[in-house]
Specification:
The complex is a heterodimer of chains A (113) and B (112).
Chain A (H helix, E strand, L loop, with lengths): L3 E4 L2 E5 L4 E7 L5 E7 L5 E7 L5 E4 L2 E6 L4 E6 L8 E11 L2 E6 L3 E6 L1
Parallel strand pairs in A: 2-11
Antiparallel strand pairs in A: 1-3, 3-8, 4-5, 4-9, 6-7, 7-8, 9-10, 9-11
Chain B lengths: L3 E3 L3 E4 L5 E7 L5 E8 L3 E8 L6 E2 L7 E6 L2 E6 L8 E8 L7 E2 L3 E5 L1
Parallel strand pairs in B: 2-11
Antiparallel strand pairs in B: 1-3, 3-8, 4-5, 4-9, 5-6, 7-8, 9-10, 9-11
The chains are: A mainly beta (113), B mainly beta (112).
């Protein structure tokens, strides 16, 4: 059974500082996603990582994937208040009937001035 | 833009009631999914469907059933609601088995 673990579950950030969220998964996967969720809102896709060594960046967020270590990281550079949200990683395993996402528990991020 | 809508944002039901949660997508997607979201547990897959009238169990199907009579609509049914089904329910859809999933806004269900 695939397990996906995120840590930390809660991250209090200071504006301007750098932080990293970790996502470990237990078995080989086909793709890894990072999502953002604002309070009361749905999930917004941030990144899709397809292969070992993949790195994607958008603004202050950078995601990377190490399939050998079964680890993805989401790095936040110079945190700003707008990045306060809950971040989820999800691992995708393709099956005959369709892709099946398994999610981590989420990391709630609060950026303080 | 893909649009996934859910029939209610908030719902309060009593124990033992039959509950229907509706999800509609407007982009002709083949696959549709129902998840529940609980604090610290992330999203867990309840059921998914890859075609009309087809369904597959996810990781936590117990206590739930689904219906997909039309391609754009996927319903989650709680035959007899229980308090442990109080949760946020999210619907998602994807064009095909290898495509990204798009999520609806969620329905927060409270069972009293």
């Amino acid at each position: 059974e695939l397990k996906v673990e995120q840590n930390p579950l809660f991250l209090s950030m200071q504006e301007g500082k750098n932080y990293t969220i970790y996502c470990n998964y237990s078995t080989t996967s086909d793709r890894l996603y990072w999502y953002r969720q604002d309070p009361g809102k749905s999930l917004e896709s941030l990144f899709v990582l397809l292969s070992n060594g993949a790195v994607k960046q958008e603004g202050r967020l950078m995601a990377s994937l190490d399939t050998k270590a079964r680890l993805s990281t989401l790095h936040i550079t110079a945190a700003v208040h707008d990045l306060s949200a809950t971040y989820f990683c999800a691992v995708d395993i393709l099956q005959a009937a369709g892709n099946k996402l398994t999610f981590g528990g989420g990391t709630r991020v609060l950026v303080k001035p | 833009d893909v649009k996934v809508t859910q029939s209610s944002r908030y719902l309060v039901k009593r124990t033992g009631e039959k509950v229907f949660l509706e999800c509609v997508q407007d982009m002709d997607h083949e696959n549709m999914f129902w998840y529940r979201q609980d604090p610290g547990l992330g999203l867990r897959l309840i059921y998914f469907s890859y075609d009309v009238k087809m369904k597959e169990k996810g990781d936590i199907p117990e206590g739930y059933s689904v219906s997909r009579e039309k391609k754009e609509r996927f319903s989650l049914i709680l035959e007899s609601a229980s308090t442990n089904q109080t949760s946020m329910y999210l619907c998602a859809s994807s064009l095909g088995p290898e495509d990204e999933q798009y999520f609806g806004p969620g329905t927060r269900l409270t069972v009293t």
